[in-house]
Design brief:
Length: 430
Amino acid sequence: MPPEATAMTDQLSADLASLKIDRSAPPRRSRGGLILILLLLAGAAVLGIFVIYPKVTGALFTADVKTDQVRMISPAQGTVQLSASGNVVALIYAKVAAKVPGRIAEIYVEEGQKIEKDAKVARLEDVDFKSGLGASRARAAAARARIQIARSQVSELRVQIDRERPLVEKGVTAKATLDDLVARAESLTAAVRSAEAEANASDAETRSLEVQLGSYMITTPISGTVVDKLVEVGEGVSPGFGTPGVVEVVDMTSLVVEVDVPESRLAQILEGRPCEILLDAYPANRLAGTVKEIGRRINKSKATVPVKVKFDQPPDQIEIEEGSGSAAVKKKMLVLPDMAARVSFLGQKLDEAALKIPPKRVVPTKAVTKRDGRDVVFVFDEGTVRMVAVTIKGEYGGGLEIENNIPEKTKLVLDPDPDLADGKKVKEKK
């Protein structure tokens, strides 16, 4: 073997030997994998601190509390057979809409304005329509002018015929001349009848267009108060789709309270039975009412029957007093549709003096405790308690009457622990 080949073989053997794995060297770890593991551990720690730990501590260390509600108890509570909640509704109302599609040009009313039946509410853009109406009136006028011209021509020919007939009978003029005049008169008479028919058709078209033009003026079908403007000037309306109306009108004298009575208690409700109405907007004013109508359909999902209760005194005539002493001001009660109300069905009708006694604001006896020598209650507000000082007037209706204006149905903590403090987290027992 030549020396060059031997040298190349030795070099190749040395290179192959250098490619052997050194199993005695310690394994090398990937730095990227180590960073990923550290990130996962950090994420787990954050999740534990901010999510799991609060839930665990809240479940283990948050106090459970029992709650009850603030109630408005009427002096007529002794005669109450059944109470139900509902809303004020109107028996007579209308969403005044346009009869034809178009764009609002003018709106003549404002919200809160009282209007009478057939009063103008709004007007649609009618320039193009008025142009067509003007053209129709012009055609009718032209047809009537042609009638007058044709009648004048007929009258002139009749004069000529009357003058020509004696001459023909005497043989002075030829009969053909008279025949021509008679034929022309008959032709003009037919032209008069045609012009009269054309004028009648134009008049009928004009009357039809005038009726249609009246549809561009939107009027209210009922008397009442405008409670909402549904569109603005420039907006398009259509009787078939899109905006359902232009304004909403409600007859405020038709307001009643509609409540849902449980089906199982329907036997206690009779038409004409006296009621007491308490509006959430005026909790200090008790209003007399009477069962007006019992619904004829049952809500199967709630097992209730709708009952309508009318106000014994029209709502817009009810006066209330604001303030006290010399600062007291009397004003009309503003009763509006959809106001929340509670109705108590009574065993006997209350007199006017009894109705003037305002309802009492009563809290459960177990909700009142002492803090720093003061009477306080703890209001439960979405997992947190808020301490409120109260002034007790005395026992009433199985609880304690207070002077404070705490809203009805506010939840209060019962039997609060001595260490319960303002702002503390609690859980409500179900």
